[in-house]
Amino acid sequence: MSAQPLDCEIAEVVWWGTQALRVRAHAARGVSRCPTRVAPYSAADPRAQHLHVRCWEDGCLGIVHAVYLTTLARLQRRATQDRLAVTDKLRYARRVVASQVAELDRAGRVSRGLPAKPTRSDGVPGRILAALRTSTEDPKRLEWLEQLFRMVRGFVCREHRRAAIWPTDMWAAEKSAVDGRFRALGTAVVRREIEGDIHEVLKIAREVAGDSWVAANILHPFLTVVGPLPEELDTPCTEAENDTAERAALASFRARYAALRRAGWAPEAAFRQACAAVYGCDPRGAVADAIADLEAWFRGA
Q1: Helix axis angle, 288-300 to 267-278, nearest 10°
Q2: Which residues does residue 226 pair with via DSSP β-bridges, in sequence order?
Q3: Residue 219: C-alpha distances to residues 114, 144, 234 (Å)
Q4: C-alpha neighbours within 13 Å on the C-beta side of residue 212
Q5: Which has the closest alpha carbon to 186: 169, 201, 174, 207?
Q6: 21 burial via Cβ count (<10 Å: 0-12, 13-18, 19+)
Q7: Cβ-contact 65, 1 below 8 angstroms
Q8: Are 282 and 272 in contact (CB under 8 A)?
Q9: What is the pTM of this model?
Q10: Mean pLDDT lowest among 12-21, 61-70, 86-95, 101-110
Q11: Burial readout 70-102 (b: 16 or more C-beta within 10 A, e: otherwise)
Protein backbone atom coordinates (compact mmCIF):
# COMPACT_ATOMS: atom_id res chain seq x y z
CA MET A 1 0.00 0.00 0.00
CA SER A 2 3.02 2.30 -0.44
CA ALA A 3 2.82 2.75 -4.24
CA GLN A 4 0.47 5.71 -3.87
CA PRO A 5 -0.24 8.35 -1.22
CA LEU A 6 -1.98 6.67 1.67
CA ASP A 7 -5.27 8.05 2.94
CA CYS A 8 -5.12 7.33 6.67
CA GLU A 9 -8.79 8.21 7.22
CA ILE A 10 -9.99 5.82 4.53
CA ALA A 11 -7.62 3.13 5.84
CA GLU A 12 -9.17 3.39 9.31
CA VAL A 13 -12.72 3.21 7.87
CA VAL A 14 -11.73 0.08 5.95
CA TRP A 15 -10.08 -1.53 8.99
CA TRP A 16 -13.11 -1.22 11.24
CA GLY A 17 -15.61 -1.78 8.44
CA THR A 18 -14.06 -5.15 7.59
CA GLN A 19 -13.85 -6.36 11.18
CA ALA A 20 -16.40 -9.17 10.75
CA LEU A 21 -14.59 -10.56 7.69
CA ARG A 22 -11.20 -10.28 9.34
CA VAL A 23 -12.34 -12.06 12.50
CA ARG A 24 -13.70 -14.89 10.33
CA ALA A 25 -10.35 -15.15 8.56
CA HIS A 26 -8.64 -15.58 11.91
CA ALA A 27 -11.33 -17.98 13.17
CA ALA A 28 -10.74 -20.24 10.17
CA ARG A 29 -7.23 -20.75 11.56
CA GLY A 30 -8.18 -21.22 15.18
CA VAL A 31 -7.93 -17.66 16.54
CA SER A 32 -11.17 -16.19 17.87
CA ARG A 33 -10.31 -12.49 17.43
CA CYS A 34 -7.97 -10.18 15.58
CA PRO A 35 -4.78 -9.71 17.62
CA THR A 36 -3.95 -6.26 16.15
CA ARG A 37 -5.33 -3.56 18.44
CA VAL A 38 -4.44 -0.40 16.43
CA ALA A 39 -5.75 0.12 12.89
CA PRO A 40 -2.79 -0.25 10.51
CA TYR A 41 -2.17 2.61 8.03
CA SER A 42 -4.36 4.89 10.17
CA ALA A 43 -3.08 8.14 11.66
CA ALA A 44 -2.21 6.20 14.83
CA ASP A 45 -0.02 3.71 12.94
CA PRO A 46 0.63 4.97 9.38
CA ARG A 47 3.44 2.46 8.72
CA ALA A 48 1.57 -0.52 10.23
CA GLN A 49 4.35 -1.07 12.74
CA HIS A 50 1.97 -2.46 15.36
CA LEU A 51 0.51 -5.09 13.06
CA HIS A 52 0.47 -8.60 14.52
CA VAL A 53 2.09 -11.28 12.39
CA ARG A 54 -1.07 -13.41 12.47
CA CYS A 55 -2.86 -10.73 10.42
CA TRP A 56 -0.41 -11.42 7.58
CA GLU A 57 -0.59 -15.18 7.99
CA ASP A 58 -4.38 -15.52 8.35
CA GLY A 59 -5.37 -13.26 5.46
CA CYS A 60 -6.74 -10.49 7.67
CA LEU A 61 -4.51 -7.86 6.09
CA GLY A 62 -5.22 -9.14 2.59
CA ILE A 63 -8.89 -8.32 3.12
CA VAL A 64 -7.96 -4.79 4.20
CA HIS A 65 -5.74 -4.25 1.15
CA ALA A 66 -8.41 -5.46 -1.30
CA VAL A 67 -11.24 -3.39 0.19
CA TYR A 68 -9.02 -0.30 0.58
CA LEU A 69 -8.01 -0.33 -3.08
CA THR A 70 -11.61 -0.81 -4.23
CA THR A 71 -12.84 1.99 -1.98
CA LEU A 72 -10.13 4.38 -3.13
CA ALA A 73 -10.80 3.53 -6.80
CA ARG A 74 -14.51 4.27 -6.40
CA LEU A 75 -13.80 7.57 -4.70
CA GLN A 76 -11.44 8.60 -7.49
CA ARG A 77 -13.85 7.48 -10.22
CA ARG A 78 -16.71 9.38 -8.65
CA ALA A 79 -14.60 12.52 -8.49
CA THR A 80 -13.28 12.25 -12.08
CA GLN A 81 -15.29 10.12 -14.50
CA ASP A 82 -18.65 10.80 -12.90
CA ARG A 83 -17.68 14.46 -12.40
CA LEU A 84 -19.33 14.42 -9.00
CA ALA A 85 -17.48 15.72 -5.99
CA VAL A 86 -17.86 13.57 -2.89
CA THR A 87 -18.79 16.14 -0.27
CA ASP A 88 -18.57 13.67 2.62
CA LYS A 89 -15.70 11.39 1.76
CA LEU A 90 -15.83 9.24 4.88
CA ARG A 91 -19.57 8.66 4.71
CA TYR A 92 -19.28 7.57 1.08
CA ALA A 93 -16.31 5.37 1.98
CA ARG A 94 -18.33 3.62 4.70
CA ARG A 95 -21.05 2.82 2.17
CA VAL A 96 -18.50 1.42 -0.29
CA VAL A 97 -16.83 -0.68 2.42
CA ALA A 98 -20.20 -2.05 3.57
CA SER A 99 -21.10 -3.04 0.01
CA GLN A 100 -17.70 -4.69 -0.48
CA VAL A 101 -18.06 -6.66 2.76
CA ALA A 102 -21.51 -7.87 1.67
CA GLU A 103 -20.14 -8.85 -1.74
CA LEU A 104 -17.21 -10.76 -0.24
CA ASP A 105 -19.65 -12.47 2.13
CA ARG A 106 -21.79 -13.60 -0.81
CA ALA A 107 -18.77 -14.72 -2.81
CA GLY A 108 -17.49 -16.75 0.14
CA ARG A 109 -20.82 -18.52 0.57
CA VAL A 110 -21.13 -19.28 -3.13
CA SER A 111 -17.58 -20.69 -3.24
CA ARG A 112 -18.63 -23.19 -0.56
CA GLY A 113 -21.80 -24.15 -2.42
CA LEU A 114 -24.12 -22.14 -0.14
CA PRO A 115 -26.85 -19.66 -1.11
CA ALA A 116 -25.53 -16.18 -1.93
CA LYS A 117 -28.38 -14.56 0.02
CA PRO A 118 -29.57 -17.13 2.57
CA THR A 119 -32.24 -14.89 4.14
CA ARG A 120 -33.89 -13.65 0.95
CA SER A 121 -37.68 -13.58 0.94
CA ASP A 122 -38.49 -14.12 -2.74
CA GLY A 123 -38.62 -17.28 -4.85
CA VAL A 124 -38.87 -20.53 -2.90
CA PRO A 125 -38.39 -18.84 0.52
CA GLY A 126 -41.22 -16.49 -0.41
CA ARG A 127 -43.54 -19.43 -1.06
CA ILE A 128 -42.56 -20.96 2.29
CA LEU A 129 -43.26 -17.67 4.05
CA ALA A 130 -46.68 -17.57 2.38
CA ALA A 131 -47.39 -21.07 3.71
CA LEU A 132 -46.28 -20.03 7.20
CA ARG A 133 -48.79 -17.18 7.08
CA THR A 134 -51.63 -19.65 6.55
CA SER A 135 -50.45 -21.99 9.31
CA THR A 136 -51.66 -19.82 12.21
CA GLU A 137 -54.13 -17.04 12.91
CA ASP A 138 -52.15 -15.76 15.89
CA PRO A 139 -50.24 -12.64 14.72
CA LYS A 140 -47.52 -13.05 17.34
CA ARG A 141 -47.08 -16.71 16.44
CA LEU A 142 -46.82 -15.75 12.77
CA GLU A 143 -44.28 -13.03 13.49
CA TRP A 144 -42.19 -15.52 15.45
CA LEU A 145 -42.30 -18.26 12.79
CA GLU A 146 -41.29 -15.82 10.06
CA GLN A 147 -38.42 -14.56 12.21
CA LEU A 148 -37.36 -18.10 13.09
CA PHE A 149 -37.34 -19.15 9.41
CA ARG A 150 -35.02 -16.23 8.64
CA MET A 151 -32.75 -17.00 11.61
CA VAL A 152 -32.54 -20.70 10.73
CA ARG A 153 -31.44 -19.94 7.16
CA GLY A 154 -28.91 -17.36 8.31
CA PHE A 155 -27.52 -19.50 11.10
CA VAL A 156 -26.77 -22.56 8.96
CA CYS A 157 -24.69 -20.44 6.55
CA ARG A 158 -22.72 -18.68 9.26
CA GLU A 159 -19.02 -19.34 8.94
CA HIS A 160 -17.02 -21.09 11.62
CA ARG A 161 -19.78 -22.33 13.84
CA ARG A 162 -18.30 -24.59 16.49
CA ALA A 163 -20.98 -27.31 16.40
CA ALA A 164 -24.12 -28.44 14.58
CA ILE A 165 -26.41 -27.37 17.42
CA TRP A 166 -29.32 -24.94 17.27
CA PRO A 167 -28.92 -21.93 19.64
CA THR A 168 -32.20 -22.71 21.40
CA ASP A 169 -31.52 -20.61 24.50
CA MET A 170 -30.84 -17.45 22.51
CA TRP A 171 -33.79 -18.10 20.22
CA ALA A 172 -36.02 -18.59 23.28
CA ALA A 173 -35.03 -15.09 24.36
CA GLU A 174 -35.89 -13.83 20.86
CA LYS A 175 -39.28 -15.55 21.06
CA SER A 176 -39.99 -13.95 24.42
CA ALA A 177 -39.17 -10.56 22.88
CA VAL A 178 -41.83 -11.25 20.23
CA ASP A 179 -44.67 -12.62 22.35
CA GLY A 180 -43.77 -10.98 25.69
CA ARG A 181 -43.94 -14.23 27.64
CA PHE A 182 -41.47 -15.26 30.31
CA ARG A 183 -39.36 -18.36 29.64
CA ALA A 184 -36.86 -20.01 31.94
CA LEU A 185 -33.91 -19.99 29.58
CA GLY A 186 -31.70 -23.06 29.58
CA THR A 187 -34.34 -25.44 30.87
CA ALA A 188 -35.17 -28.62 29.00
CA VAL A 189 -38.82 -27.71 28.49
CA VAL A 190 -37.98 -24.36 26.85
CA ARG A 191 -35.36 -25.97 24.63
CA ARG A 192 -37.91 -28.55 23.51
CA GLU A 193 -40.37 -25.75 22.79
CA ILE A 194 -37.90 -24.00 20.44
CA GLU A 195 -36.89 -27.28 18.83
CA GLY A 196 -40.58 -27.93 18.20
CA ASP A 197 -40.87 -24.55 16.49
CA ILE A 198 -37.85 -25.35 14.32
CA HIS A 199 -39.35 -28.70 13.34
CA GLU A 200 -42.63 -26.98 12.46
CA VAL A 201 -40.86 -24.50 10.20
CA LEU A 202 -38.87 -27.27 8.50
CA LYS A 203 -42.01 -29.37 8.10
CA ILE A 204 -43.79 -26.55 6.28
CA ALA A 205 -40.67 -25.91 4.18
CA ARG A 206 -40.63 -29.58 3.12
CA GLU A 207 -44.31 -29.47 2.22
CA VAL A 208 -43.77 -26.42 0.01
CA ALA A 209 -40.27 -26.90 -1.43
CA GLY A 210 -39.59 -30.61 -1.00
CA ASP A 211 -37.00 -32.60 0.91
CA SER A 212 -34.20 -31.82 -1.55
CA TRP A 213 -34.53 -28.03 -1.10
CA VAL A 214 -34.52 -28.31 2.70
CA ALA A 215 -31.55 -30.67 2.58
CA ALA A 216 -29.51 -28.45 0.24
CA ASN A 217 -30.31 -25.10 1.84
CA ILE A 218 -30.71 -25.92 5.53
CA LEU A 219 -29.75 -29.40 6.71
CA HIS A 220 -26.57 -29.90 4.68
CA PRO A 221 -25.08 -26.49 5.61
CA PHE A 222 -26.17 -27.01 9.22
CA LEU A 223 -24.26 -30.26 9.49
CA THR A 224 -21.18 -29.34 7.44
CA VAL A 225 -20.35 -25.63 7.91
CA VAL A 226 -18.58 -26.09 11.22
CA GLY A 227 -15.24 -24.44 11.94
CA PRO A 228 -12.33 -25.25 14.26
CA LEU A 229 -12.40 -24.47 17.94
CA PRO A 230 -10.34 -21.35 18.80
CA GLU A 231 -6.97 -21.60 20.48
CA GLU A 232 -8.36 -19.48 23.34
CA LEU A 233 -11.14 -22.00 24.07
CA ASP A 234 -10.00 -22.50 27.65
CA THR A 235 -9.86 -18.78 28.45
CA PRO A 236 -12.42 -18.21 31.23
CA CYS A 237 -15.24 -15.70 30.80
CA THR A 238 -14.96 -12.99 33.44
CA GLU A 239 -17.91 -11.44 35.21
CA ALA A 240 -17.15 -8.09 33.55
CA GLU A 241 -17.96 -9.60 30.14
CA ASN A 242 -21.59 -10.27 31.14
CA ASP A 243 -24.41 -7.89 30.24
CA THR A 244 -24.59 -5.18 32.92
CA ALA A 245 -28.31 -4.58 32.48
CA GLU A 246 -29.06 -8.29 32.72
CA ARG A 247 -27.01 -8.62 35.91
CA ALA A 248 -28.82 -5.63 37.43
CA ALA A 249 -32.22 -7.11 36.52
CA LEU A 250 -31.23 -10.49 37.97
CA ALA A 251 -30.05 -8.87 41.20
CA SER A 252 -33.33 -6.99 41.47
CA PHE A 253 -35.28 -10.16 40.76
CA ARG A 254 -33.43 -12.13 43.43
CA ALA A 255 -33.87 -9.34 45.97
CA ARG A 256 -37.60 -9.19 45.29
CA TYR A 257 -37.90 -12.98 45.48
CA ALA A 258 -35.99 -13.12 48.78
CA ALA A 259 -38.14 -10.37 50.30
CA LEU A 260 -41.33 -12.18 49.34
CA ARG A 261 -40.06 -15.51 50.73
CA ARG A 262 -39.14 -13.85 54.03
CA ALA A 263 -42.64 -12.38 54.11
CA GLY A 264 -44.06 -15.90 54.02
CA TRP A 265 -44.88 -16.30 50.32
CA ALA A 266 -44.64 -19.80 48.84
CA PRO A 267 -41.77 -20.34 46.33
CA GLU A 268 -43.90 -20.45 43.18
CA ALA A 269 -46.07 -17.50 44.23
CA ALA A 270 -42.95 -15.48 45.08
CA PHE A 271 -41.39 -16.43 41.75
CA ARG A 272 -44.42 -15.29 39.74
CA GLN A 273 -44.79 -12.07 41.72
CA ALA A 274 -41.08 -11.23 41.27
CA CYS A 275 -41.36 -11.91 37.51
CA ALA A 276 -44.30 -9.55 37.22
CA ALA A 277 -42.56 -6.84 39.26
CA VAL A 278 -39.14 -6.95 37.58
CA TYR A 279 -39.77 -8.25 34.04
CA GLY A 280 -43.37 -7.13 33.62
CA CYS A 281 -44.74 -10.51 32.52
CA ASP A 282 -45.92 -13.85 33.87
CA PRO A 283 -43.66 -16.91 33.59
CA ARG A 284 -44.66 -19.42 30.93
CA GLY A 285 -43.98 -23.13 30.79
CA ALA A 286 -42.35 -25.30 33.45
CA VAL A 287 -40.62 -23.18 36.09
CA ALA A 288 -39.66 -25.87 38.58
CA ASP A 289 -35.96 -25.83 37.62
CA ALA A 290 -35.74 -22.05 37.90
CA ILE A 291 -37.49 -22.08 41.27
CA ALA A 292 -35.21 -24.84 42.53
CA ASP A 293 -32.15 -22.76 41.60
CA LEU A 294 -33.62 -19.71 43.31
CA GLU A 295 -34.43 -21.68 46.44
CA ALA A 296 -30.88 -23.02 46.58
CA TRP A 297 -29.57 -19.46 46.28
CA PHE A 298 -32.09 -18.15 48.84
CA ARG A 299 -31.23 -20.76 51.47
CA GLY A 300 -27.51 -20.23 50.94
CA ALA A 301 -27.71 -16.43 50.94
Answers
A1: 100
A2: 161
A3: 11, 21, 30
A4: 0
A5: 169
A6: buried
A7: yes
A8: yes
A9: 0.48
A10: 101-110
A11: bbbebbeebeeeeeeeeeebeebbbebbeebbe
